[in-house]
Design a protein that fits this description.
heterotrimer; A mainly alpha; B mainly alpha; C mainly alpha; B: mainly alpha
């Protein structure tokens, strides 16, 4: 290449490998104009914009991530609350059921006690009535018996004491016979 | 290249284009320095500045229009050029690398823009300016970050080699790193654009010559081939132009990276 | 190689460094030792020094590349 070029240069007088001075000057001028405008002024601008863009994109991603995390936290919170509410509800239900059972048991007991009380009262009443009826009956029977005996015998049993003794004897007799019969 | 010497003087004979392609007379008579490559270099600077200003002048968080296109370029340089070689230092050098990439690409693209059709980098002065800037920066950064002695020691005496062999290898390292590498950095770009321009000029001249200048039944198919090849090679050149701009910026990033941290 | 630093970007960087340094090293080796051989040939008149120098230069460059980037 070099040889060929120098050969040609010898023949033609214009060696393409020898730079023209004015072209060097113009070359330096154009290069440094480009270097200052493109290299020194414009490149920092586009670099700044690119950096900002990267930042914006990364910021956007971060923001989205934050939003997602927030949503996740919220969801978790809701779920927790829901679970808590469910738990609470079931607890309340359980409690109510227990309370209900207790109330039922209490009521039943009360009712039974009441019933027992009523039965006892009835028993007592009946006993009292029986006693009273027995006493009345006893007096009535005595009077009737005396009347009957007086009428049958035809004699007036004026003597009170005798009369009473007689009646008592009579009644005792009846009682013992009824007891014996029984 | 030997075909270039076949420059014939006859008017009725097809003459392949040669080095005269790169001779550019002053556009305005009397103003010697104002030639086509100079005009295109200034125009490229204007294009890069205007494009970058409309893309990055007032950047929005949500990009639209030109900013989208500009950001594609920025991302490409950042992810394919800066980060692989500079790692965490990538952002600090993006200004330089972005300027180099855009400027070289537009320089190269001038080669396929209709009417203009001249790759600025095919004049070696322009690649030299960039390569020399990178070279100075590379040596400066190397000395700053590794110390004057450390820089040359790391460069010329890579660890892990048997001691006596350093005598033989250190000169190779020196020559390679400080002379050949920057030289090829500039020449690679220059040579690609130079050759590409000659190829495009050759095929378009074939098409023009055999279809318009000297239309003959025998020559016409050749002219058609020339036109087809011109179109195909234009597409290929656009790929090469992009690739060379990328490579130039990538090598710059590599040199800077190697100066910031010793290679091993 | 034992002092190689572990950095995440080391892989791509090493590969590209190697890919773009190899031609440069080969060229340097050839120019340096080929040139030295050529000078020796000029002084001693022994033509063989030039190809010997070229081959030595390439061999040294290949060895250097192998030790730096190989393995």
């Amino acid at each position: 290449m070099i040889q060929a070029a120098s050969l040609l240069a010898a023949e033609e007088g214009a060696n393409p490998l020898i730079p023209h001075t004015y072209e060097l000057v113009v070359g330096v001028f154009s290069f440094f104009v480009v270097l200052i405008v493109v290299g020194k002024i414009l490149t920092p601008r586009i670099q700044k914009t690119l950096a900002e863009r990267t930042e914006a994109i990364e910021g956007g991603i971060q923001k989205a991530q934050e939003a997602q995390e927030e949503a996740q936290a919220l969801l978790k919170q809701y779920k927790d609350q829901l679970a808590e509410a469910r738990h609470e509800a079931s607890r309340l239900r359980e409690e109510a059921r227990e309370q209900g059972a207790q109330i039922k048991a209490e009521l039943r007991e009360e009712a039974q006690a009441e019933a027992r009380r009523l039965v006892e009262a009835a028993h007592a009443q009946i006993e009292a009535d029986r006693q009273q009826a027995f006493a009345q009956l006893r007096a009535e029977i005595g009077r009737l018996s005396v009347d009957l005996a007086g009428r049958i015998v035809g004699e007036s049993l004026e003597d009170e004491a005798r009369q009473r003794r007689t009646v008592d004897r009579f009644l005792e007799e009846i009682e013992t016979t009824s007891a014996a019969v029984r | 290249m030997s075909t270039l010497t076949l420059l014939a003087s006859g008017e009725d004979q097809f003459t392949p284009p040669g080095l005269e392609l790169f001779d550019s007379p002053p556009i305005i008579a009397g103003v010697d320095w104002f030639t086509k490559p100079v005009l295109l270099a200034l125009l490229s600077t204007l294009i890069v500045v205007v494009f970058c200003w409309s893309a990055f002048g007032n950047p929005k968080l949500v990009p639209r229009g030109v900013q989208n296109v500009g950001e594609m370029g920025y991302m490409f340089v950042r992810d394919q050029v800066a980060r692989p070689f500079l790692g965490k230092d990538a952002d600090r050098w993006m200004g330089l690398l972005l300027s180099i990439f855009f400027l070289v690409w537009i320089w190269n693209l001038m080669g396929v823009v209709p009417i203009l059709q001249f790759p600025v980098a095919s004049h070696i002065a322009f690649p030299i300016v960039l390569a020399l800037t990178i070279y100075v920066l590379k040596v400066y950064l190397g000395i700053k970050h590794q110390g004057a002695i450390g820089y040359f020691k790391n460069m010329m005496f890579p660890p892990g080699l048997p001691k006596p062999i350093y005598v033989l290898l250190a000169p190779i390292e020196f020559l390679s790193n400080l002379i050949i590498a920057p030289f090829t950095h500039a020449v690679r770009l220059f040579a690609n654009m130079f050759a590409g321009h000659i190829i495009l000029a050759f095929f378009s001249l074939v098409g023009f010559w055999f279809l318009f200048e000297k239309l003959t039944p025998l020559g016409a198919p050749l002219g058609v081939v020339g036109v087809v090849m011109t179109i195909a090679m234009t597409g290929f050149e656009m790929f090469i132009q992009f690739l060379q701009a990328f490579l130039f910026a990538m090598l710059a990033a590599m040199y800077i990276g190697n100066s910031l941290h010793a290679e091993h | 190689m034992s002092e190689k630093k572990i950095r995440p970007e080391d892989d791509g960087r090493d590969f590209a460094s190697a890919a773009w340094s190899i031609p440069s090293y080969l060229l340097s080796g050839m120019i340096l030792y080929g040139g030295a051989g050529w000078l020796l040939s000029r002084w001693t008149g022994v033509v063989a020094f030039t190809p010997i120098g070229l081959i030595l230069g390439v061999a040294l460059a290949v060895y250097l590349v192998y030790r730096k980037y190989g393995r």
